[in-house]
Amino acid sequence: MLVTELLKLAPSPEQGRALLATMRACNAAATRAAEVAFAHRTANKIALQRLVYAELRHEFGLSAQMTVRSIAKACEAYKRDKTIKPVFRELGAVAYDPRILTWKGSEAVSLLTVSGRVVVPVLYRGRWLQSAGATLRGQADLVYRDGVFFLAVVVEVPEPSRQEEPQGWLGVDLGIVNLATDSTGEPYSGKGVRAVRRRNARLRAKLQAKGTKSAKRLLKRRRRKESRFARNVNHVIAKKLVGKAKDTRQGIALEDLQGIRDRVTVRKAQRADLHSWGFHQLRTFVTYKAALAGVVVRLVDPRNTSRTCPGCGHIDKRNRPTRDEFCCVSCGLAGQADHIAAINIGRRAVRHAADDAA
Ligand SMILES: [Zn+2]
């Protein structure tokens, strides 16, 4: 399977300037090419090359390959929506193919720039690239973010042999207080994330009131940092869940996320959390980490998972007097609501397994 990985680059200041100049030139060239594409109403690469190739090479000082790439970028964007004339961000990502990117061992990469080739050290090689049997795909994107250069690469990772029939199911409930709770009752906390979000929200309000250019820049940086943090938390949770399932030879049962937003009743303040990030990302991470580890994931019907008593099967809204508590009105079984939901989710996967066999 294919995974994308961000490798951190560590260029010298001089190399950094060359890379920035290259990104500017490529994006300006692509914007110019898009202008011509728009004016001539053509999304055809060959036709567009005939029209702008010489001009772009001359005006922006690009190599043949970079010129062709810039034209391709313009074509793709214009093709997506022919009603608008695409304009590319000054420092938007630039695609590097093997003709302009060469690996120098595993510690450095040679990149073509407008001032010749530079050999840039790679600071962080990423987790997949180092795993057994991983191979690097040809193309990469040069990305500049908050003052740091990255190379976004695609890595082909061998798919492990699939788990035999799981010896049980680890049910996972995705929540708010805890981002996830599994059917053994283990919580996976989102506490840190919520604290950071609250702090940032306060800061954002202050900066927005200011409205200056530098305040806006700071805002943007904050938002990125926050989403990186949340992403990292999701990675950690997904890794833990998948590791636990693998070690205990269980499959993972998740609610079909389609149901999540209908099911959970939350106060307004929390609703922002729920929608802005998290659930889809966490599920995506669990799913692909599970696939890499050979752990089976099964999605189950989310209806009434939080209202059903795992003891006697009684379904009742009143089984859940508060958001955090479960207490069966029929048999008295009580517990923490997320844990109960996770148990129900795990059980539903068993039922599905039986259906599959029949
Ligand atoms: Zn009961």
Give the helix/strand layout:
Elements: E1 2-9, H1 13-40, H2 45-60, H3 64-80, E2 94-96, E3 101-104, E4 108-113, E5 116-124, E6 135-145, E7 148-156, E8 169-174, E9 178-182, E10 187-189, H4 191-210, H5 213-247, E11 251-255, H6 260-263, H7 268-276, H8 279-293, E12 297-300, E13 325-327, E14 334-336, H9 337-357
Helix pairs in contact: 1-2, 1-3, 2-3, 4-5, 5-8
The structure holds zinc ion.
Task: Tell me what you see in this structure.
- This protein is an alpha+beta fold and 358 residues long.
- The longest helix is centred in the middle third of the chain and has 35 residues, at 213-247.
- The strands form 3 sheets. Strands 2-6-7-1-5-4-3 form a 7-stranded antiparallel β-sheet. It has a 5-stranded mixed β-sheet with strand order 10-9-8-11-12.
- The chain has 2 domains: 2-156, no CATH class; 169-357, Nucleotidyltransferase, domain 5 (2-Layer Sandwich), CATH 3.30.420.
- It has helices spanning 13-40, 45-60, 64-80, 191-210, 213-247, 260-263, 268-276, 279-293, 337-357; strands at residues 2-9, 94-96, 101-104, 108-113, 116-124, 135-145, 148-156, 169-174, 178-182, 187-189, 251-255, 297-300, 325-327, 334-336.
- Residues 259-272 have low confidence and may be disordered.
- The structure holds zinc ion.
- Zinc ion binds at residues 309, 311-312, 314, 328, 330-331, 333.
- Residues 153-248 form the Probable transposase IS891/IS1136/IS1341 domain.
- Keywords: DNA recombination, DNA-binding, Endonuclease, Hydrolase, Nuclease, Transposition.
- One of its GO terms (molecular function) is endonuclease activity.
